[in-house]
Amino acid sequence: MQQIRAKIGAALTSKVFRQRTPDGREVIVVIDGDGITTSVAEYRPVYINGDISKPGEYTYRPSMTARQLVAIAGGYDIMRIKMNNPYLESADLRSEYGSLWTEFAKEQAHMWRIKSELGEATQLSPGALTDVPVARSAISEIVHAETEYLKIKENDHQQERSYLERGVRQGDEEVRVLSEQQKREEEGFQSDLEELQKAQDLFARGNLTSPRVTDARRAVLLSSTRKLQTSAQLMQVKKQQDELVRKLTKLDDQRRLDLFRELQNASLKLNQIRERLQSVGEKLQYTAMVRTQLAGGGGSKPGIAIIRKGEGGPERITANEDTELQPGDAIEVTLRYEDGLEAPPRKKLSNLNTPAATGRIDVPAAESLRPAADDEATRGVTPHRNTGDALSFQRK
């Protein structure tokens, strides 16, 4: 500022100015260097961007530091992606996480039940789902429900098979009886036909009256009608018999087709739940880290860079919170998170398709999903801390 004042004073002192008075006279005015006062009406604004609550343009003040500008901009934003309150968000995610694990266990039991119906799996038991972080009582209820459902379906299938087999046996008996009846009807028809022929011969020789011939004709007509009725009934029974045999043959094939389709849908749903579990687990880890950063006061010092326009163009200057700014500066703030608060790496959940008898599954710290009041749920399971602030369950 002093250099600017000296420069302006030197320029003005070498000039003579004429000033006209109200009465029309001109007065020569000579400006002395000591009589010049210079002040700045407005500074160029400064700009801030990055991990800041309210990035944007702000008014520059003399001797302003990066710390002061950050305070004006609302402070550091330790959450790179805008999210709700991490404590409330964590509670919602824990609830969703627990529901997904319960649904995961249910779908696993569902798949085992289908495979049991197909003859590809052994008897389902609660011990097969010990690695799933769900209360033991809930697992027992899931297994019990699937076991009862399996019994009911097998009983219903067996009853349907017994019904069809009984229908086939009854149809065979009806076919045998009707075939025997048809044979006798044929014999009776032939006998009546012979009687009619004899009656006609006797009537032609004059040894028999006309009413006797008429009676013989009626007997032949009646025998023929009974024969046709028996043949039609036999054809109908055989048709029903063929339908029952086809249903009996198709019963097992259709059941296996339905089971394979149900198994495919269950496998697809299980994969979808696995992906949702992975996503919610990562959110829980991120939220837990954010809570840790909040409790720790925001972590280490941020990275501050100043982009300033120099004689050779824009220059990038590494700075700190106490660096004084100049008008027109653009500041970029980057938070350096402790313990790598980047997006957690995705974990493979392929081993959850068929849990082994022993194993471990990592869940976020302090996010235990088993009810504290359920003693059986935590029996034989020891929680312990891992790096990355995660809580694991390992079978003793």
TrEMBL record:
Keywords: Coiled coil
One Pfam family this sequence matches: HH_AprE
GO MF, any single term: polysaccharide transmembrane transporter activity
Source organism superkingdom: Bacteria
Residue ranges, annotated region (Disordered): 342-396
Boundaries of every AprE-like long alpha-helical hairpin domain copy: 94-280
Coiled coil residues, start to end: 234-283
Identification of the protein by name: Exopolysaccharide biosynthesis protein
Originating organism: Bradyrhizobium diazoefficiens
